[in-house]
Amino acid sequence: MRLNHYQREATRTLPSNTEPGEALNLGALGLGGESGEVIDLIKKHLFHEQPLDVDKLRKELGDVLWYVSAIATGASLTLEEIAEANVEKLRKRYPEGFSPAASVAKADEQQPGRAARFVREASEDQILEAIVKNKIPPEAKWGDDIPRTPEGYPLGSANPQRIVDALRAATAEPEGWPGDQK
Fold first, then answer.
1. What does each C-alpha distance from 32 to 7, 28, 56, 66, 76 come to in angstroms?
2. pLDDT tens digits, residue range 31-69?
3. Coil/strand/helix, residue 97
4. pTM over 0.70
5. Where in the chain is the domain with CATH 1.10.287.1080?
6. Eight-class DSSP state of 16
């Protein structure tokens, strides 16, 4: 079944005379509830050692899709245009497939070369200031041992390896990006 065909069929079952704003509200509230039912099924499977009820999961995911369709309809969007935009975003963000570094870098949200230029041209103090905004103590310098939690993360900070991965990913030019131009 095509997504837009599904959306037309699902819209037919919205309460009659539903205004766009009402469809948004109905969709958002229903999505929260139905998502909770999906989560509960998975929780029971993972932590209560119950078999995954795939038929019930299919039905609950169908309800989730119905509410997503209601939100899209209320916003005058089609499910197919949403799906196409999402695939385009994922191709830009993960040109080589998923990686944690690409997830942090979010290349689809960056202007080509901007982050790379910053990392190449910024002083150590400017880079440290950017890291400090992620709550790494300002006294930390490259290579310093900084206070860590029992899990090994800097106190009050994000995982430093993620920051390093983000900097590495940001300075790489994904295929298709133009070189830095000033």
1. 19, 6, 17, 12, 21
2. 999 999 999 999 999 999 999 999 999 999 999 999 999
3. strand
4. no
5. 3-88
6. T
